[in-house]
Amino acid sequence: MKRSLALLLILMFGGLVFAQDTEPPVTTRNEVPSPDDFEFQVVMQNLWRPLYVTHAGDGTERLFIVEQGGIIYVLDGGESTIFLDLTNLVSPSANQQAYTERGLLGLAFHPNYAENGLFFVNYTDGAGHTVLAKYQVSENPNIADFNSAEIIFTQMQPFPNHNGGYVAFGTDGYLYMALGDGGAAGDPLSAGQNPDLLLGSILRLDVDVETGYGIPADNPFADGVGGAPEVWSYGWRNPWRFSFDRVTGDMYIADVGQNQWEEIDFEPVDSVGGLNYGWNVLEATHPFSGGHVPDDVVMPIAEYDHSDGSCSVTGGYIYRGDAIPNLQATYLYSDFCSGVLRYAYRDTATTWQSGVLRQTDMLVSSFGEDEAGELYIVDYGGTVYKIVPTE
Question: Alpha-carbon distance 201 to 193, whole Å?
Answer without folding.
Answer: 9
